[in-house]
Amino acid sequence: MDFQVVVLAGGTSKNLIPLVSKDVPKALLPVANRPVLSYVLELLEASNLKDLILVVEGQDAALQIGSWVSGAYADRLHVEVATVSDDAGTAGGLRAVAHHLTASDILVVSGDLLCDVPPGAIAAAHRRQDATMTALLCVPPVSGPSESGSAGGKDKAKKPGPQNIIGLDSSKQFLLFVASGAEVEKDVRIQRSILRAAGQMEIRADLMDAHLYAFNRTVLLEVLNEKPTFQSIKLDVVPYLVRSQLKSEALSSGEPLKEEGWNENGTTQNNQSYISEQHVISTHGFLQQRLFGSNGLIGAPKMRKCCAYIAPKHKYCARLNSIQAFSDINRDVIGEAIHLTGYSLSSHNNIIHPTAELGTKTTVGPHCMLGEGSQLGDKCSVKRSAIGRHCRIGSSVKIINSVVMNHVTIEDGCLIQSSVVCSNVHLQERVILKDCQVGAGYVVSAGSQHKADSLARKEKA
């Protein structure tokens, strides 16, 4: 398709400490015992997009990720690893590799994305509509039920508030307004002149920006060059492009730039209509005539068209950008989203490696994973959890709704619930962990109990 592909693999995200460290960059965090980056690389490979620029923050992370990629995909992908500073941001990462971008269109994808929407579909829609930018939007997944370790325990699953406010035209193809992050916490204001230009705008608060974009290279590089302070694609570049596509149209109407706004309860200041998920504003609009013609999409000369590709609801789409997301995604992909992994569930609806060993009266429940060479002692119970490779687990251990990484030692009588235990951790006997994260190489002393704690060794500067 003559698209260049840039994968933004990040580095050691602060949101994921202590799961990430100097030794374990974000891109190599395990999802169903595979580095999260592998899911994006194989998604691209399936769309025959095999020539990639991989942007990594930090020299140490770049060396580790580059080494892993060259070993795992040596005969399958051509990957050029570019190192940028730790604070470059996603826009800064693109700016750093701008001189390598030569194709007419660029596909940009986050390395923490897990989805089954073919990137080729977004690329094809982008070309078909002759767009400046096309963004993949999807409905966030509803994670499967977690197992509770105690009877009558409260369901701690939290429904996150809307992360994005998105305005679409009546055909749901054109992106007319975006607000995300801190903007959503405040009054959301839309210029009335833009509403008039759009004719009808559907306001959505139920869609997630998947961080997979197609860009016209010329416009993208122009924006990155003209706006050196832009750090984020999602928060800076995309909103700027969306505003700029309508700016000339709005100004040509000669109308003052009045604004519509919503208050904290999600209601308009004029008509008090509730917009928790969807809301439609209608006016007489001239923009539609510029976007649509009798023979399809035409667009005004030099008009920057920002488009949306909305994934079907049955598609899976999530980003590993928080500790909660890490836990949810691991639970999803050894359950309802097993098709993403390439694994097949056993007759017991779990995945147990042939080399794993189970003691007597030990049970591994549905939607669980037990990695290569791991051993469980007698009378253990594993529910809705992923256990990595070469773990040594004693007797009478309960692991519930948790992720245990590689080479972990867990002694007798431990209880691990709704927690993440990183590689090479040693839990001494009778340890109780609830809602905890334990960083790589940490030793948890015998008999200790921890709730909602983050346990990690102090890294050397």
TrEMBL record:
GO CC terms of this entry: cytosol; eukaryotic translation initiation factor 2B complex
Stretch list, region Disordered: 144-163
Biological process terms in GO annotation: cytoplasmic translational initiation
Compartments, record wording: Cytoplasm, Cytosol
Keyword set includes GTP-binding: no
GO molecular function, one term: translation initiation factor activity
Limits of the Nucleotidyl transferase domain: 5-149
Sequence ranges assigned to domain EIF2B subunit epsilon/gamma LbH in this UniProt record: 353-446
Keywords: Cytoplasm, Initiation factor, Protein biosynthesis
InterPro entries per UniProt: eIF2B_gamma (IPR051960), LbH_EIF2B3/5 (IPR056764), NTP_transferase_dom (IPR005835), Nucleotide-diphossugar_trans (IPR029044)
Pfam family, one: NTP_transferase
Assembly and binders: Component of the translation initiation factor 2B (eIF2B) complex which is a heterodecamer of two sets of five different subunits: alpha, beta, gamma, delta and epsilon. Subunits alpha, beta and delta comprise a regulatory subcomplex and subunits epsilon and gamma comprise a catalytic subcomplex. Within the complex, the hexameric regulatory complex resides at the center, with the two heterodimeric catalytic subcomplexes bound on opposite sides.
Function noted in UniProt: Acts as a component of the translation initiation factor 2B (eIF2B) complex, which catalyzes the exchange of GDP for GTP on the eukaryotic initiation factor 2 (eIF2) complex gamma subunit. Its guanine nucleotide exchange factor activity is repressed when bound to eIF2 complex phosphorylated on the alpha subunit, thereby limiting the amount of methionyl-initiator methionine tRNA available to the ribosome and consequently global translation is repressed.
Family (UniProt): Belongs to the eIF-2B gamma/epsilon subunits family.
The protein, known as: Translation initiation factor eIF2B subunit gamma
Source organism per UniProt: Amborella trichopoda
